[in-house]
Write a structure and sequence with these properties.
Its EC number is 6.2.1.3. This protein is of the alpha/beta class. 39% of the residues lie in helices and 20% in strands. The chain contains 20 helices and 28 strands. Strands 2-1-11-10-12-13-14-15 form an eight-stranded mixed beta sheet, with helices on both faces. Strands 16, 17, 18, 19, 20 and 21 form a six-stranded antiparallel beta sheet that branches. A five-stranded mixed beta sheet has the order 24-25-26-27-28. Helix 2 packs across helix 3 and helix 3 crosses helix 10.
């Protein structure tokens, strides 16, 4: 048929192309030289003895290697060997660390308690208003464990946690883990249907929430399953045991009072501990489509993530870490907090990110923490707090760089920043202005096994794959449809590797039983199945498919290209267009709504834009902003609105968005009414003058 003819023609073109002819000539030359080298070596061996025979064999092999793979391969091997060697050593150390815990069947709580015994009075977690030592963190965790043990919670039960960044956040899930209870860490930005969904999809039998989110919880409480028990933690510094107001009276138990009367020295006898491979946390991710999905984090997985970045970037146990990221995400809650729990480091957290206060905090907390250890000598201060490590996401770096110059820009002791999403366009400017010696850029998905690390500060790279021994860490960039992300297969039904600078989908081979290669997926098994591709490089094998497009350069460095599908990234969060479309359509009277991401100059990620079919202009823009605020998290709210006078459908009655994305938010591209989101949450008309201000980066989002 026509499809087969088209494929055949493409194959003929591919085979007869210049690169393939050159490859065939190289192979013919290689076979010819192999025959001549073998004959020559045999003659030398026969007439001149073993010594000259071995010398001839060595020279023949060297000559053959210069032909295939060629001199260039030796050059690439030479320049990348130091990088690959450091990564290999780190990888071996991670495997040994995880295997050691596995052999002893240890969980996160076991390692943490060992650190408590080793340095009980060392600061573990520090915030703007709290300074908790390892002893204090453990005591609060024990109180939590004893309260829930007395309430009948046991290994395998699920208790959700909705709380802002504070010391109690860490101690709460840590205490629950001592009972073997699984804790879903719920995004504090969620409201309404999204919040309700997260509680239900996690199969929570109880929910612990901070009083700051009392209104949000009470709004959905009546729609939760009857068996979900509510526990309110009062976060008032003045009176933590104060009763709640009428909103939660009779619906929630007051956790503060229960904790006050619970034992703090140890967990009550009879509690069943968690095993090494048991589930520890659920961390929510929007994935590629739909509502938030609960990704599974086992104790083993927690060890691998925290230890992986620890050894890959050369962290020290006496480093002080600064993270203003939310602790319900993997970056802050596992990578940074894991340094305290597993390695005894000090982690400084912040309730909310502040661009102007980022490096000010790094400098200020360094002094404050040092003063806390006044009993130590000056030499001890230098030993314990000489270095700091700060964490970022790409948007943070841009926000920080946009602040006015200040003395603390360089008056800090930060030797390294690590995170994901630092744009190549601002990388050099960022490290030079703030005097950063090293950047550790990483890439990975909470639920995935395709995790990589840039360990040598190569500008713009998110990681690398070895060009010498790629088999050691089986991750690959495969050819795929750049719009759908669907792998492109050859005549054998298998996937193919991309060439240098050829964009493709990033995948990681799945090896069951290997903590570094296993894919745990989501709580929802159907959602997990969608992230697995079969028959990748051989029949029967499996790989996690990331849905992200990457490109590799000649030395194996990988660079982020784009995201496939309808999900885009904004303010460090994945935004699902289908979820936003559903919520927005409800608010505008179920009108046809199309949501997509658009690029803003000099801005990381893509800003949300919603096109609403409203030819008679019935939607009230004045109140829409307020209603969206109550419905969607801030990162998911559309930055731009477009009211369509006509709508374009495909032959199967699907809404077209490609042309809308191309036109973006340019007023000159259409006659439709456009609006943009103001800082106060309301929408204002987007005029040509406003558009030009955005293009000049004078108006920022």
């Amino acid at each position: 048929n026509a499809k087969d003819v088209k494929i055949s023609v493409e194959q003929i073109k591919h085979i007869s192309s210049g690169p393939n002819r050159a490859s065939r000539r190289r192979w013919l030359l290689f076979l010819l030289m192999t025959s001549l080298a073998a004959a020559g070596t045999a003659l030398i061996w026969h007439y001149h003895g073993v010594y000259y025979g071995l010398l001839g064999l060595y020279c023949s092999l060297l000559l053959l290697l210069l032909i295939k793979p060629g001199f260039r391969w030796f050059y690439i091997a030479a320049v990348t060997t130091p990088r690959d060697t450091l990564a290999l050593i780190a990888y071996i150390r991670v495997l040994l660390f995880v295997r050691r815990q596995q052999r002893k069947n240890l969980n996160v709580g076991d390692i943490f308690e060992a650190n408590v015994a080793r340095c009980p009075d060392k600061l573990a977690v520090v915030s703007e208003s709290q300074k908790w030592t390892f002893r204090q963190l453990n005591e609060h965790a024990n109180r939590v464990a004893n309260v829930f043990h007395s309430h009948g919670y046991k290994k395998g039960d699920i208790v959700g946690l909705l709380m802002e960044n504070r010391c109690e956040f860490v101690a709460t899930w840590l205490g629950l883990s001592k009972l073997g209870v699984i804790t879903p860490l719920i995004n504090t930005n969620l409201r309404g249907a999204s919040l309700q969904h997260s509680i239900k999809v996690g199969n929570c039998s109880a929910l612990i929430y901070s009083s700051s989110y009392r209104t949000a919880v009470m709004d959905v409480a009546k729609d939760l399953p009857a068996h979900v028990a509510l526990y309110q933690f009062n976060d008032s510094a003045a009176n933590p045991a104060a009763p709640a107001d009428g909103l939660s009276q009779g619906l929630a138990q007051q956790l503060n009072a229960l904790l006050e009367s619970a034992a703090k020295d140890k967990v009550a006898a009879g509690a069943t501990r968690a095993d090494h491979h048991d589930k520890l946390l659920y961390i929510y991710t929007s994935g590629t489509t739909g509502l938030p999905k609960a990704a599974v984090i086992t104790h083993s997985r927690y060890f691998f993530i925290a230890a992986g970045i620890h050894y890959a970037l050369g962290f020290q146990d006496n480093d002080v870490f600064y993270t203003p990221l939310p602790l319900y995400h993997t970056a802050g809650g596992v990578m940074s907090i894991g340094q305290a729990l597993l390695f005894g480091s000090t982690v400084v957290i912040r309730k909310k990110f502040s661009a102007s206060g980022y490096f000010e905090d790094c400098a200020r907390f360094n002094c404050t923490v040092s003063h806390k250890f006044a009993k130590h000598s000056a030499l001890d201060f230098m030993r314990i707090f000489r270095f700091q490590i700060a964490q970022y996401i790409g948007e943070m770096a841009r926000y920080i760089l946009a602040t006015a110059a200040a003395p603390h820009d360089r008056q800090h002791q930060v030797r390294m920043v690590f995170g994901n999403g630092l744009r190549p366009q601002i990388w050099t400017q960022f490290v030079e202005r703030f005097k950063i010696a090293k950047v550790g850029e990483f890439y990975g998905a909470t639920e995935g096994n395709a995790n990589i690390m840039n360990n040598d500060s190569t500008v713009g790279a998110i990681g690398f794959v070895s060009r010498i021994l790629p088999q050691l860490y089986p991750i690959s960039v495969i050819r795929a449809d750049l719009h759908t992300g669907e792998p492109i297969r050859n005549e054998k039904g298998l996937c193919e590797l991309c060439g240098v600078q050829e964009p493709g989908v990033f995948v990681g081979k799945i090896v069951k039983g290997n903590p570094c290669r296993e894919f745990l997926g989501y709580v929802d098994t159907k959602a997990s199945a969608k992230k697995v591709v079969h028959d990748v490089f051989s029949k029967g094998d499996m790989a996690f498919i990331s849905g992200d497009l990457l490109v590799a350069d000649e030395r194996g460095y990988l660079y982020f290209k784009d995201r496939t599908g309808d999900t885009f990234r904004w303010k460090g969060e994945n935004v699902s267009t289908s979820e936003v479309e559903a919520q927005l359509s409800n608010l505008v009277g179920y009108k046809d709504t199309i949501v997509y991401g658009v690029c803003i100059p000099q801005t990381e990620g893509r800003a949300g834009m919603a096109a609403i079919y409203d030819p008679t202009r019935e939607v009230n823009v004045a109140t829409l902003g307020t209603r969206l605020t109550a419905t969607l998290p801030n990162y998911a709210r559309p930055i731009f609105l477009r009211f369509l006078r006509r709508i374009d459908l495909t032959g199967t009655f699907k809404l077209r968005k490609v042309e809308l994305q191309q036109q973006s938010f340019d007023p000159a591209a259409s006659d439709d009414e456009l609006h943009y989101l103001q800082p106060n949450g309301s929408y204002a008309p987007l005029t040509p003058a406003i558009y030009e201000s955005i293009q000049r980066n004078e108006l920022r989002f």
